[in-house]
Amino acid sequence: MLVTLDEGNRIVSIEGDPENPATGGRVCLKGLSYARRVTYSDRLLRPLRRKAPGAGFEPVSWEAALGEIAERLKGLRDAHGPAAALYYEGSGSHGALGGLSMAFWRQFGGCTTTFGDLCWPAGLEATRLTYGANLHNHPKLTVQGRLILLWGHNPAETNVHQWRLILDAQAQGARVIVIDPRQTDSTDAADRHLQPRPGTDAALALGLARVIVDAGLHDAQFVEAHTHGFGEYRQRLAEFPLGRVASLTGIEPEEIRALALEYAGTKPALLIAGFGLQRHSRAGQTMRAVALLPALTGNVGIPGGGWQYANLASHCLRPLALPPEPAASRSIPVSQVALHLETLDAPPIRAAWIERGNPAVQNPAAHRLRGALARLDLVVVVDQFMTPTAGLAHFVLPAKTLFEEEDLVTAYWHPYLQWRARILPPPGEVRPESDIWRALCERFGYDTSYFPADRESYLRALLPDACGFTLDDLKERPLDLSGNGDVAFADRRFPTVSGKVEFASGEASATWGVDPVPDCAPLGEGAESPARRRFPLQLLSCKTRDRIHSQFGNLDWVRAVERPHVLDIHPDDARARGIEEGSRAAVWNERGRIELPVRVTPGIRPGVVHVLEGWCHEGDADVNALTAEGITDMNHGATFYECLVEVARA
Amino acid sequence: MSDHAAHGPLVAFTTLATAGAGLVAASACFEVVHGLRSPHALAAGAPLLAAGLAVSLRHLGQKRRAGLAVRGAGRSALSNEALLAGLALAAAALAAGLDLSGAHTQAVTALAGAINAAFLASVGLVYHIRGQRTWRGCSAATPLTGGLAFGAIAVQSTAGPGGVFVGTLLLVAADALLFSRRWRDVAGIAFTEATLANPWTIRRSQLLAARFFLLDVIPFLLLAASPALLATLVAAAGLVVDRFGFYALALQQTTEHEIADVESQIAATGRTARD
Amino acid sequence: MSGAGFVLDLHRCVGCGACVLACRIENGRIETAAWRRVLPLNLRRHQAGPTYFLSVACHHCEEPACLKGCPSGAYEKRPDGVVVHHEERCLGCRYCEMTCPFATPTYDEAKGVMSKCHLCAHRVDAGRLPACVAACPTEALQYAASPEAQAGGATAFVPGFADPAGCRPVVRFLAPAGARRAELFRSLEEALKR
Question: C5-62+121-193: which CATH number, 3.30.590.10, 3.30.70.20, 3.40.50.1820, 3.40.50.2000?
Fold first, then answer.
């Protein structure tokens, strides 16, 4: 972004960086709303300490806050060992310097951290197992697609810059097809839309493949030369005739057939999968099944084609120099924080330091997590606003915004690394997290050489070796330092075990205990589960363009334009329960119960209900009271969309 | 229209001004047609007009620039109204002044009456706005007919013995007829999420009926039975309800309303398609 | 030929609100009402109709009701078509707010005057695009020196757009596309004509 300040350091304009090839010089509403966020009246400007249990907060000096925190951390370490402290960081405020927290914790003797990820890990692993590397075509090549298939992806809401590219392709004659159980802004603009039951996408993918192979429309030459395990894959396909797939997915057989023929018959065809596709316990195998379709049809290694998921080419920085990892360190899955807070032993977790995240609202089983946090001896939260997580803390430390610290920033859908300038001083008594960690290290008498003495040279040293660019180049414009070409796998070299695209993966089986060939196993709380007798509705909790999870929603500017926070329910399901438009409904399962206003919409599949994730308004229902702490079959992801509920009039 | 609370001064202004101008116009009318002079009604006109104008200043965000209001005369209905308001006040004051000092002339009174009637007409034209769903058609004339009706009722009820003049009854009936058309127009607007966002829409029948009965029907019956001040008081209440209801029921067209109407249309299409 | 104005591509507009915020930042509307609004049509996704968004600010009409009705002559229509409001002549009487068929002018309580979109005339005069247009991430909102002449296939009226009440607004719209939506849009236009 290009930000202009006046003499009073007030933001007078925020514009897109015209030098960023991916965003085309535009900014979304969230980026623009930083003009309000940075100086918003609710912004925390001073350290806060809780006055007494159950009472409110009082401002304290950094000296006092860090002094007491240090004392209490030492006490906990003496009593239980360093792993009694949980260090939890979210992805709320990105930058390479975020890793500096470990400069403290490792010298502290270690701590409990989290592994896995709430967002995308199953899909990443599926990509790696299938293609060997997470490589993408350059976003600019999107325009060359003749068919763009969006699967579990809603870029009109969640990636508006990519949506512009898709619209450009469509304007030039490309067909846009979306697979999503809901009607969304993306499906409105599509040329075809399929609405499967949530969690049945593996069956759909295998069913499409079956139609394609039966019709002889797969790219036999590519499959022969560049893939491994096609024979076993074909055997799997025999289990997915059209009739079975139609009955599993709830989509008419003719629609499935038509999509298969169209996808296989159009080249180049681009398949973009969203993270929503992998938020259940069979995520990895599902993503493998879907990811194989471009390979099946020879859409790999061509401009305008390919498999797209999360382009992490910009994540190419060298690791930070940190102290060695102590033996006492341990790690818990991020999708099961509540469970581990409640049950972990030797030592139990007695303290939590939370920064750049809002787990009390955003994590699965959020209410249990909230309860567990409330029982800890010490909770420190670093945030810009008094979020529900901060509301549980003993100490709240005021966090910086992106304009207040120089750093390097990566992306997740394009290959550009960006240098982020410091253009504003932190207001009030705000300190960047890296300074907080340095101050804590000083207090403990630790080695502070890990922290940047000179910011410039520190960041310069993080740039990958031999990338051919300097920090000064990066200050001029975003840069692709990955060294990848514009077309992924143009050379047909796949760094898998077999050196080819793997339809059957021994590594998948050995590492994760899954079937070597993608399969479609039923979910614990899915469309076919016995649990549906009690909780017949599948709950999805998708993203809105108005927020990044629980960020931005507190701003008046955003509230004036935001979508309503409602329960979306199909008219048939509403009628069966005597629920009317605009009334309030209760949504519950064994894990929790929420209430919120209803919107009756034919746009959602019968049997499916939806509430936006990203709670942010006082009194709003938090959908994560209902979600479970499941883990994906691969790579330790979360299972937000594997959630059965019942709904009734409130 | 966003802000009902902001209309308070306008309701007060138009009530007072309509009442005052109506009294002057009606007095002049009675004098010219029936030779009956109404010194009280005539005298009351100017102060009411003045009070109304004073209150109207409260509506302005920039009161000190009030003088600029006449710059658009000829182009802007509001400028015309402002200009005529000033002239009406001056003429009413002059006529009343002459009357009170014993130098009454019918010509001056008639002129004052005409100017005040013109002012009443200009008030209606200010609010004859196509983009306002409840301010179209007949609504433009209701300040004129309502003001004249009120004035006639007031003059009639203080006229002393001599029967009820047919003219009075005709003016009241004319207002009733015109207003009943307004009633029909307003009641014909569908209830949608957007129209119901105005909390007065759901109570429109009560407001319209109250105005109709208070300003027309009840005074009509009272005058026909036996003229008395009560009729004036009831009519005054009716005028207040008329002006209050006028603003309360305002429904600006806007894109939001149009979208609500289209969404109703879509829902209706859906129902028909299913049948 | 009409003057300058906006063209909105209903296919590309996703109702994100970036235009609203960009206008706020550019014109210092930090705590006051925004000059632009984004309005969804059929967000409930009733199957008998299309779903799309209308981003509207001022339409810089050829016969603006605000200008005609303003008692103090605070409005002016520039030769390029932009309708500008001169704050120093404004009485704060709010008549323009009533007469505009779109309720475009907004009242600033603190300052006691009206204000509205001026097509970022200061930017346009310097050869730049209005802030809302520059910010639109999907390039749905466009600026044209004459939308009537420049926007091929654009229409003056789409379902959801208020009756212009004779003001002849200059804004133009491109119909929403997508196989199913285009069909529904056409049916809706037909149904409304009847």
Answer: 3.30.70.20
Q: Does the beta-carbon distance from A561 to C20 stay under 8 Å? A: yes
Q: What is the pLDDT of residues A154-185, one digit of tens each?
A: 999 999 999 999 999 999 999 999 999 999 99
Q: Which residues of chain A neighbour C24 with C-beta distances below 8 Å?
A: 35-36, 557
ipTM for the assembly? 0.96
CA atoms within 13 A on the CB side of C76: 12
pLDDT digits (tens, 9 = 90+) for A562-597: 998 999 999 999 999 999 999 999 999 999 999 999
Query: Would you say domain B3-274 falls under CATH 1.20.1250.20?
Result: no
Give the mean pLDDT of chain A: 95
Q: Report the percentage of chain B scoring pLDDT > 90.
A: 64
Distance, CA of B99 to CA of B108 (rounded, Å): 10
Q: Which residues of C touch B270 (CB under 8 A)?
A: 46-49
HSE on the CB side for A63, CA within 13 Å?
1
Q: How many CB atoms lie within 10 A of CB B35?
A: 8
CB contact under 8 A, C43 and A602: no
Given CB atoms, is B79 within the 8 Å cutoff of chain C? yes
Q: How far apart are CA C191 and CA B267, in angstroms?
A: 12
Report yes or no: A381 and A355 within 8 Å, Cβ to Cβ.
yes
The pLDDT score that the predictor gives to residue B273 is 61
CATH number of A530-649: 2.40.40.20
Closest by CA to C184, choosing from A446, A183, B109, is A183
- C-beta atoms of C47 and B60 within 8 A: no
Give the CATH fold of the A43-115+320-401+429-464 domain: Rossmann fold (3.40.50)
pTM: 0.94
Average pLDDT over residues B72-94: 95
In the structure, what pLDDT confidence band is assigned to residue C38 with cuts at 50, 70 and 90? very high
Interface test with C, best of B134, B258, B261 (most C CBs within 10 A): B258
Domain boundaries, chain B: 3-274
Residue A153 and residue A176 in contact, taking contact as beta carbons nearer than 8 Å? no
Cα–Cα dist B255/A128, whole Å: 50
3-state helix, strand, coil in chain B (%, to 5): 80, 0, 20
Confidence of residue B60 (pLDDT cuts 50, 70, 90): very high
Which of helix, strand or coil describes residue A255?
helix
The size of chain A, in residues, is 650
Q: Cβ–Cβ of B256/C39 closer than 8 Å?
A: yes
The pLDDT, as a whole number, for residue B274 is 54
**Span A315-335, pLDDT tens digits:** 999 999 999 999 999 999 999
**CA-based nearest distance B61→chain C, Å:** 4
